[in-house]
Amino acid sequence: MKIKKSFVALSAAVVLLGSTYAFSEPGSESDPLVTLSYVNKSIDQLKSYIDEKLESKSKSSYELEIVDLKKGKFLIAKAGTEIILRGGKATAIVSELGGLQDITQGVDIGQGGEIPPYHLLLVPRNDGRGVYCTTDAIFMVRGDYEIR
């Protein structure tokens, strides 16, 4: 009889511990439970973050910006920046690795070379290339640059 009672007690303990383990697993640190509202809130936050990043990227990288410069000013561009001279006169500022790529004509403009109006110029590297205004000038620029 003692063996039966011990066996029943041991079986009950095993069942109790097993059920505790089985029912406590969901919602633990390794498998947390979340509500639908939490998931929806997280998705909305992620969408807002992505939209914000895309909007800031589109403003800085895809729009042509009108830049008015006075005589004697420099426009130093970053890699990938596009420049179009709309009015005035300017010359090229180049680096040891090359000049400004005139995409319209298919040539490389060297140091001091005159910038032709209405030609699309491309700056290939972040090495100080850009344009120097010999008169007041108007440019259309797409990309990152600084004025000196």
Structure description:
By secondary structure, the chain is α+β, with helices and mostly antiparallel strands. It has two domains: 2-61, no CATH class; 65-147, Jelly Rolls, CATH 2.60.120. Helices cover 33% and strands 28% of the residues. The chain has two helices and ten strands. It has helices at 2-24, 36-61; strands spanning 65-69, 74-77, 82-87, 90-93, 100-102, 107-109, 120-122, 130-133, 137-142, 145-147. The strands form two sheets. The protein has a six-stranded antiparallel β-sheet, with no helix packed on it. A hairpin with a 4-residue loop joins strand 5 and strand 6 (107-109). The termini are far apart. The model has no long low-confidence stretch (mean pLDDT 83).
- Percent of residues in β-strands: 25-35%
Order of helix and strand elements from N to C terminus = HHEEEEEEEEEE
Strand count: 10
Name of the CATH homologous superfamily of the largest domain: Jelly Rolls
CATH class of the largest domain: Mainly Beta
N-end to C-end Cα span = 99 Å
Given helix and strand content, the structural type is alpha+beta
**What is the radius of gyration?**
34 Å
Write the layout of secondary structure elements.
Elements: H1 2-24, H2 36-61, E1 65-69, E2 74-77, E3 82-87, E4 90-93, E5 100-102, E6 107-109, E7 120-122, E8 130-133, E9 137-142, E10 145-147
Antiparallel strand pairs: 1-9, 2-8, 2-10, 3-7, 3-9, 4-8, 5-6, 5-7
